[in-house]
Amino acid sequence: MLEKAVRLLLAAGFLMLIAGCVFGFTRQWNYAALVWIGALCCCIAALNFKNQKNKKNSNEKEEN
């Protein structure tokens, strides 16, 4: 379940980066900046989910 969430967040982040580039080419810098910040946040959230899964697995191994 977490892997699917990570993949969806990364996909959303990359698509938002592409949309930000389109806004940048049309010189709508305010929208481009907002979309790039959203893309960055999506990628950070995906890394957070990935690290959360790794921490959970390492904690279970330590308990055994």
Order of H and E elements = HH
The parts where pLDDT drops under 50 for at least 5 residues are none
Counted up, domains total: 1
Could you give a short account of the major beta sheet? none
Write the layout of secondary structure elements.
Blueprint: H1 2-25, H2 29-63
Helix pairs in contact: 1-2
Summarize the structure.
With 64 residues, this protein is an all-alpha fold. 92% of the residues lie in helices and 0% in strands. The two termini are 24 Å apart.
Q: Can you describe this structure?
A:
- The protein has one domain (2-54).
- The protein contains 2 helices and no strands.
- Helix 1 packs antiparallel against helix 2 (29-63).
- It has helices at residues 2-25, 29-63.
- The model has no long low-confidence stretch (mean pLDDT 83).
- The longest helix has 35 residues, at 29-63.
- The protein is elongated and about 55 Å long.
- It has 64 residues and is mainly alpha-helical.
Protein traits:
64 residues, mainly alpha, 2 helices, 92% helix, elongated
